[in-house]
Write a structure and sequence with these properties.
The chain has 235 residues and is mainly α. Helix content is 61%, strand content 3%. It has helices spanning 27-51, 65-90, 98-105, 107-111, 126-148, 151-154, 160-190, 194-199, 205-211, 213-220; strands at 21-23, 202-204. Protoporphyrin IX containing FE binds at residues 24, 33, 36-37, 40-41, 83, 86, 90, 94, 124, 128, 132, 135, 181, 184-185, 188, 194-195, 197-198.
Length: 235
């Protein structure tokens, strides 16, 4: 949280020259996010090492094949619980709204940087919301299919046929979530100022006005802004 004061009505900085900043994420949300992010990267690397002999060299990062095989499912458990935390923080802000359909229908304008032709959106746009729900679904599929093939603890509970199906489902879900993750990271880098939201917890007023105007309006509209400090609350 910045706590940097600015006038909530006009959005003007109280101290002339200070840029307007808007809180977007609490330290708790950021720590939660980065634990999730690190887990997914480690999970993908260890999973790919087990996926194909050509990628087995990746197991060297974890200290060898045996250790990779042993820790991969545990990293999955960390990812599951960590994402669970993110899910409960953000699910409400990711509910589909009327303007999201319009935003999506104008994807061409999004990709060609014609944001003036897009509807005003709340904290997240339709693309971010789709990534959020896809990640949620895929993580559930990954943990459930992963448990079926976690022979060290659950060998006796499922049949060989079930394990075969689970292995296929697990692999397809893993490849899909890696693609979704690439889209997520690409978008975060492509929209300048977004990485700062998850690193420092705040964005500039210009960023919020340009990309999430409805969200900014809601914040300065006073519903949830702190009128003493003028700082809108982060989530
Ligand atoms: C390691 C690379 C990653 C980077 C650089 C990254 C970057 C970011 C950034 C900058 C934001 C803020 C977007 C905004 O406020 O508009 C964000 C939000 C978010 N990220 Fe990531 N992220 C990464 C990995 C992940 C992973 C692996 C997951 C989940 C499996 C994840 C889930 C989320 C969620 C749920 C949000 C909140 C947005 C929403 O609810 O729609 N991120 N990320």
């Amino acid at each position: 949280m910045t706590g940097k004061p600015y006038d909530v009505e006009s959005g003007d900085s109280v101290h002339p020259g200070d840029p307007v900043v808007v809180d977007r994420y609490t330290p708790g949300a950021r720590i939660n996010h980065w634990i999730t992010a690190i887990s997914l990267v480690l999970l993908a690397l260890s999973g790919l090492a087990l996926f194909h002999p050509k990628l087995f060299f990746l197991s060297g990062l974890f200290g060898g094949g045996q250790i990779t095989r042993a820790i991969h499912p545990w990293i999955g458990v960390v990812l599951f619980f960590s994402f669970f935390g993110l899910f409960f923080r953000f699910w409400k802000a990711n509910l589909w709204k009327r303007e999201d359909g319009t935003w999506l229908a104008r994807l061409y304008d999004v990709l060609t940087n014609h944001e003036d032709r897009l509807p005003e959106v709340g904290k997240y746009n339709a693309g971010q919301k789709m990534v959020f729900w896809l990640m949620s679904l895929l993580i559930i599929v990954l943990i459930l299919s992963g448990l079926v093939i976690w022979d060290q603890y659950f060998f006796a509970y499922t049949s060989i046929e079930q394990k075969r199906v689970a292995m296929l489902v697990h692999s397809v879900a893993a490849v899909t979530i890696i693609c979704v993750w690439i889209v997520h990271v690409y978008a975060a880098i492509w929209v300048r100022g977004t990485i700062g939201a998850m690193v420092k917890g705040r964005v500039t007023g210009g960023w919020a006005w340009r990309h999430h105007r409805k969200w900014l309006r809601e914040l300065v509209g006073g519903k949830r802004a702190d009128h003493k400090t003028g700082a809108p609350p982060a989530e």
